[in-house]
């Protein structure tokens, strides 16, 4: 077996399948695009779903890739096992309705065993197969796998519910008896079992069936091959390491962590090794995740990043690293991966800064968590209890990032235990909430055989024409291809069309289809891309339509014009955001409608009023400069180098790309329709800015007529406000508003002063009325005040020492308030303000609490105040 680096192995895999006619698909972003079923891209096939479900027919049905992935379902196991990782690379080769078992299996065998490629010893390879899949078993034997190394396993059937499925075959490598961690008679001691000796290398899925909603399985119209081989595992075999973490993918990160620690060394102590592995894994994950646009936050992907950073920081503390350090590992991660993933090195300053800020933020959170934990421990000591409850332990884990073992360690130092069963119950409840939130989204759709079979050539001519005559080539009605249709809904394909199909955030055109006599025969309500790339028109049919007949296709010109203007505005806004917010800002989605546009971008902070004003000024200046909007079709590399065009993350580009230029200010790849000149936009106005998810903000805006309507409406509202405020000129409204606010504040101050005076006067009456209850001097009364006044009275009572116990009630704004205060003598005899308030608060339909000397409560039943005071007296009698 050859001695190869990870970079050489990755390249060798892709080169091998390129020799077999495969197209190399670049690794996609870790942040899924238009896929609500995934939090992260978690497999090589995840980004190819559109090919496998028939939504899109690839130019080449043979595809290979090295795809970066994140999986977070087993975070707790990372560092504790040889191969668990949150970030990993999946090598794969895929056939979309092309080759099948007779090619896929021999190629896998050739790549692994040929001296021209990896050169593994055939005798060390084992394969598992689905028992009924005799064809696969036969082919493996024919290529050279020893008969007793072909194992039948019922689990070798890949099925995720509705959609494509089929038998699979896994390839295992025997690392030898020295790696065996089980006894010879252990039922897991075999290729395919849970052991360290036989390492799974490759999984080949023969996707030949469709799992229908009714539970039945039927053959797919196009059989597919979907394979996955973890690069890290393959590298560990080739480099002869005990685990993935000693390979060249991790070792430089671990070595840097050793230098940052207090003289700890990897391989000397099992507990330290776990921390080193966690740090190395999480450094890779967060570097790539942030590089792909995900930012730390309290939800979704952002929460995963935050949790990984905190887990790494806590493990840094375990090996003697104090203060932020994870950000220092980013350049090392970038250097290891830059041969295939240059993006981390290219963005290392931004990535490192983002991670460092999060580490600093966690330092504060960590202190808050310790405060909570110390409070829980103190309360247990006070009650002479020995168990930290599961809910508190989980809160420390979920909110403050404390792993259970850290809480357990603190508890044991204090002679306490942790309710780990309760912790697990809270953890499972959270997972269930997450599952419920995700719902039952289908991971991969089933193929639409009818649309997949339509191979008609169709040309889009809508850049230059609003109406044309075209020949109807295909009609699909009720999921069947027909030659004629007279009513209802149908899908139509013409040899050419002016109708734009929805793509890149721009909505589809609408319009009509007319016969040669000028009669409208159908209404176009939507246009989408068919699997083979044609623009397929979704229509309501009025009169008979026949294939091979000629029809006139007319788009709704007013609709198109407004969409064109808004699309050009998104390009200007995109660049303006980079100018105002920062060069790292990038698009995270968009929608271009005729009456408004929206633009999503990555940011953890809201735009300020000043930034919004700057954006509007930049875009409007470009509009008023009347800049021609130019389009040009160029080879993709020329467009990138010569024009410096920006490629949007959500799009896949071919060899030729359409470049949209607005002077030298905005140059982007774009297949949408645009204004001919920026002056056509007329006016640009941002109408809203908001958060829509973790690290993602949304701007909504209008142009032209809609912008005029919006501003006119705002002006009318301002005029109405001026009239209400009795201001003659609009320019005086802000000054008048400021004056009214100041007047209101002054009135509130005066009102509060009067309340204070009344309270002071009332206190003389209240404090003169002292009752003797069970040997305690008690003052209990209802006063016309609010909670603030009650607290003032309690402070005065404390200073004046008028009685042992004070119980006051008040009502304001249909709400009830209670305050109980107890002096030290009464406390020593067992009276606690917090205990009293908890017992009487129910009378006002509320709750509260506090310290032994002072407690308060609020409720929504002022009528219960009399009963509350009487109950307080009864409680005092019981002491």
UniProtKB/TrEMBL annotation:
Belongs to the class-II aminoacyl-tRNA synthetase family. The keyword Cytoplasm applies. This is Alanine--tRNA ligase. It holds the Pfam family tRNA-synt_2c. GO terms for biological process: alanyl-tRNA aminoacylation. Its EC number is 6.1.1.7. Its cofactor is Zn(2+). Keywords: Aminoacyl-tRNA synthetase, ATP-binding, Coiled coil, Cytoplasm, Ligase, Metal-binding, Nucleotide-binding, Protein biosynthesis, RNA-binding, tRNA-binding, Zinc. GO terms for molecular function: alanine-tRNA ligase activity; aminoacyl-tRNA deacylase activity; ATP binding; catalytic activity, acting on a protein; transferase activity; tRNA binding; zinc ion binding. It catalyses: tRNA(Ala) + L-alanine + ATP = L-alanyl-tRNA(Ala) + AMP + diphosphate. It comes from the Bacteria. It is found in: Cytoplasm. PROSITE patterns: AA_TRNA_LIGASE_II_ALA. InterPro entries: aa-tRNA-synth_II/BPL/LPL, Ala-tRNA-lgiase_IIc, Ala-tRNA-ligase_IIc_anticod-bd, Ala-tRNA-synth_IIc_core, Ala-tRNA-synth_IIc_N, Ala-tRNA_ligase, Ala_tRNA_ligase_euk/bac, DHHA1_dom. SUPFAM superfamilies: Class II aaRS and biotin synthetases (SSF55681), Putative anticodon-binding domain of alanyl-tRNA synthetase (AlaRS) (SSF101353), ThrRS/AlaRS common domain (SSF55186), Translation proteins (SSF50447). GO terms for cellular component: cytosol. Residues 4-713 form the Alanyl-transfer RNA synthetases family profile domain. Consists of three domains; the N-terminal catalytic domain, the editing domain and the C-terminal C-Ala domain. The editing domain removes incorrectly charged amino acids, while the C-Ala domain, along with tRNA(Ala), serves as a bridge to cooperatively bring together the editing and aminoacylation centers thus stimulating deacylation of misacylated tRNAs. CDD domains: AlaRS_core. Zn(2+) binds at residues 567, 571, 670, 674. Catalyzes the attachment of alanine to tRNA(Ala) in a two-step reaction: alanine is first activated by ATP to form Ala-AMP and then transferred to the acceptor end of tRNA(Ala). Also edits incorrectly charged Ser-tRNA(Ala) and Gly-tRNA(Ala) via its editing domain. Residues 737-764 form a coiled coil. It comes from Companilactobacillus tucceti DSM 20183. Binds 1 zinc ion per subunit.
